[in-house]
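REQUEST ID: PR-0412
SUBMITTED BY: lab tech R.K.
PRIORITY: routine
TASK: structure prediction, single protein chain
INPUT:
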Amino acid sequence: MSTPADGAAYWLRWEVFVCGALIAVPTALAAALLPRLRRSAAPLRATDLWVPCWSRLHPGWLLGYRAFALAAAAALLARNIASHSFTVFFFYTQWTFLLVTIYFALATAISAHGCWVYSKKSSRKADESHGFLNVDVENRELSGERKRDEIDKTKSYYEEIANEKRTAFWGRCMQIIYQASAGATMLTDVTFWGLLVPFFYRDRFGLSMVTDGMHSLNFIFLLIDTLLNNMPFPWYRIAFFVFWSFSYVTFQWVLHASSALSWWPYPFLDLSSSGAPLWYLAMAIAHVPCFSLYWLVVKGKRAYFPRLFPHAYVRTSN
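STATUS: complete
OUTPUT:
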């Protein structure tokens, strides 16, 4: 078989051009459709970033969980780097885990800011303070002047946070990273446990508590956050998941084209086989069901939790 070290002959194979098209075309389509789809999406409310979806749960609990997840993820990543140096970032798994870690770092900072804003309302009782953030849950119990006053307070509260440009910018970044992480995590775990372990594990990978744990904890960390947070999950942000994977494959191709790396971290990325286009096509298609699986988790939460917990779960219009 040819290798990247063989020079131009390797990169002039027809498989390279087909595989290149299979990663470039979906990325171009995602970039073209993203602006159009984004216009039809509901605006992101600042409070959705740090207010839990449970009416009686103080935002501090979500902050505490995110801080714990950040510490655990950073510790696992640091331990892996200490054991194998920065060559661990040759693998998509480490890219994904780093993205998850960045998400929790940003989410922790925004939750901390939100809790600080929330603490300024400490003159009210905790349940009333949380309740006016979720008027849809209690507006049926309000009447007359109290209802109008409560709605005015909610409106002014949202405007107070939404008008902070820095928070709005980082809030959008947080949501983008959240959704890209969700798709990448599903792709990483499904590929590892469904493909690499059964077919390539003995030849290319060894047992490692840290490595194997990363292929489970990344999903668990995000899933718990999903069950607690109130963030929308618009479908069109699959585009950022596609961009993320495109960046990784481009990174690998550049490394091999420059002879900085002579082996492929994942056997199915090797371009020397005539079956390489089929592998690239399969991985490109896999992005849709992987993102869809997580989207269905969020959809299921919003569809069934209000029925199972009618007095505890906060209904949202997003």
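NOTES: The CA atoms of residues 4 and 256 lie 6 Å apart.
REVIEWED BY: pending
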